Amino acid sequence: MNELTPEQERDNALAELARVRAALSVGLSVEQSARLQGSTPEELEADAQTLAAEFGLTSPPAPVHRSGGDRGPDIGNGAGTVAGGAERYRTKHPQRETRADEQQRRTNPFHERTYTVENR
Predict the structure, then answer these.
(1) What is this structure's pTM?
(2) CA R_g for the chain
(3) How far apart are CA 108 and CA 72, in angstroms?
(4) What 3-state class would DSSP assign to 99?
C-alpha cells in the first residue's frame, strides 16, 4: 500500500480545493469539478469556463439565501449589540423614583440582626 506523506496530502487537498473553487465560480457542481484539469488556478478557471460552456451554463448560479432571511431594519445601527439591547430596554422600561416604603420592602430582612438565638 502506498502511503502519502503529510506534504503530499496537503498538496492533494489544495489542488482539490482549487478545482472546487473554479467549478463553483462558473456554476458547475462539486462532482463536476473532478473533471477539471490544470495545475494553476488560472488554468483551472479557464477549463471550468470551457466545461460550463459545453454544458450550456451561461452564468454562475444565484447565491443561496441562508435560513432565517433578513434580520430586519436593525442591521447596522448597533441594535444587535449588547449596548444597543440595553438602550432599547431602558427606553422601554424607564426608571422611576422609588418611594421610601418600597425601598424598605426591597431590603433583605435578614441583613439587620434584629433577632436573637437563645442557647438552651
Answers:
(1) 0.48
(2) 33
(3) 43
(4) coil
CB 47 within 8 A of CB 22: yes
DSSP code string of 11-46: HHHHHHHHHHHHHHHHT--TTGGGG---SSHHHHHH
User: Angle between the 6-26 and 41-55 helix axes, to the nearest 10 degrees?
Assistant: 40
- Give 59-112 pLDDT, tens digit per residue: 666 666 666 655 555 555 666 678 888 888 888 888 877 676 666 666 666 666
Residue type, 66: R
DSSP per-residue codes, 49-71: HHHHHHHT--SPPPPPPPTT---
